[in-house]
Write a structure and sequence with these properties.
With about 300 residues, the chain is mainly beta. Helices cover about 10% and strands about 50% of the residues.
C-alpha cells in the first residue's frame, strides 16, 4: 500500500468519526419552553385603540436573538429560574406573508420571565407605543364624523359611517362604526377615490420609517396612493394594492419610507384609497374601512 493511499484512508476514517460525534445527541441541554399564544398592544399613550395584527415575535435571551417566530408559538429555551428577556414585534409589510418587518413604533419589550426546565411558561407580551411616536392621522369613525372623505364619487355611489360587525381573525369581535363606500346599481366601469380631508403638513424625509395601517373588507381591489405637494409641483404615487379579502376583515401595515424619503422639506401629503369597479361586477359592491393610523418616530 502506498503512503498516499494509507494517509487518505486514515483521513477519511478520522473525518467520519468526527461527523458521527458531531451528530450525537447533546443531552446536557434540557430546555424550558416559552409559550406565546397572543400579543397585546396598549395604545392609550397615543389615544388610540388596541386593535393590531402583530404576526411574529423575536425573543432576545442573553443578548442573542433566538430568531423570529409566528404567533402562536412554543419556543425551547436554555433557561431555569428568572431570566431577563427582550421582545420585538413584527408585522407583515404591505400584507405580504413573506415580508415581515419589525414594527419599531412599539417599544421593544424588556421584561423578566420565570422558567422551569422541561415545563412550559405561558407569557403574553404587551407592547406600548414609544413616547416619541408622532400620529399624523388616526381615525376609527366612532365619533360618527370622518377625516376620510370622497374626492371622486359618481352618481348613484355613496359613502357613510355605519355600525357593522368587525372580526379580525377571531379577535375584537363585535359591532363597531366603520366607513362604508358603496357602488350604485349602474354596471358600467366605475371608480371612487377617498382621501384624507386635509393635507398632512410634513413627513420625515431622512429615512425614518412611516407606517400606514388600516383595516379593510372588500371584494374589489383597493389601491393605496399618496399625492405629494411641494414647491416643484405635485405628484400622484401609487404604492400598493390590497387584493379582495374574500368576505373577511384584513389589517394592512405599509411602510411609506420609499415614498417620502428624500422629498423636499416643504412637501405636504394626501393619502388616497382608490377603488375601481369593472363592468358587470357581481360581487359585494361595499368597501369597508376602519382603524386608520399613520405614525412615525420623531
Amino acid at each position: 500500500m502506498s503512503i498516499f493511499r494509507y494517509w487518505a484512508i486514515n483521513s477519511m476514517l478520522f473525518l467520519g468519526t468526527g461527523i458521527l460525534s458531531n451528530c450525537s445527541e447533546d443531552t446536557s441541554f434540557v430546555p424550558a419552553y416559552l409559550e406565546i399564544k397572543q400579543i397585546d398592544v396598549d395604545a392609550s399613550g397615543i389615544e388610540g385603540n388596541s386593535i393590531h395584527e402583530i404576526v411574529g415575535i423575536q425573543p432576545v435571551h442573553n443578548g442573542q436573538s433566538m430568531g423570529t417566530f409566528p404567533i402562536p408559538c412554543k419556543i425551547p429555551i436554555n433557561a431555569d429560574g428568572t431570566v431577563k428577556m427582550q421582545f420585538v414585534a413584527f408585522v407583515k409589510n404591505n400584507g405580504n406573508s413573506s415580508n415581515w418587518v419589525p414594527y419599531r413604533t412599539l417599544i421593544y419589550l424588556d421584561t423578566q420571565i420565570n422558567f422551569t426546565r422541561e415545563k412550559s411558561t405561558v407569557f403574553t407580551p404587551k407592547f406600548s407605543y414609544r413616547s416619541n411616536t408622532e400620529v399624523s392621522w388616526q381615525e376609527d369613525f366612532e365619533s360618527g364624523n370622518s377625516t376620510l372623505v370622497p374626492v371622486r364619487l359618481n352618481k348613484g355611489d355613496s359613502t357613510s359611517i355605519e355600525s357593522r360587525n368587525f372580526d379580525l381573525n377571531g379577535k375584537y369581535s363585535g359591532n363597531t362604526r366603520v366607513f362604508v363606500t358603496k357602488f350604485g346599481p349602474n354596471d358600467s366601469l366605475k371608480y371612487i377615490d377617498l382621501s384624507i380631508f386635509d393635507k398632512i403638513p410634513s413627513l420625515p424625509n431622512d429615512g425614518r420609517e412611516v407606517f400606514m395601517e388600516f383595516d379593510v373588507k372588500s371584494d374589489l381591489v383597493v389601491t393605496l396612493a399618496l399625492k405629494r405637494y411641494n414647491s416643484s409641483g405635485s405628484a400622484y404615487v401609487q404604492y400598493m394594492s390590497v387584493n379582495p379579502t374574500k368576505g373577511n376583515w384584513k389589517r394592512i401595515y405599509s411602510n411609506l419610507i420609499y415614498e417620502v424619503q428624500g422629498q423636499p422639506v416643504d412637501t405636504k401629503y394626501e393619502i388616497y384609497f382608490s377603488i375601481d369597479k369593472p363592468e358587470g361586477f357581481s360581487g359585494n359592491r361595499e368597501i369597508l374601512i376602519d382603524n386608520i393610523r399613520l405614525t412615525y418616530l420623531k
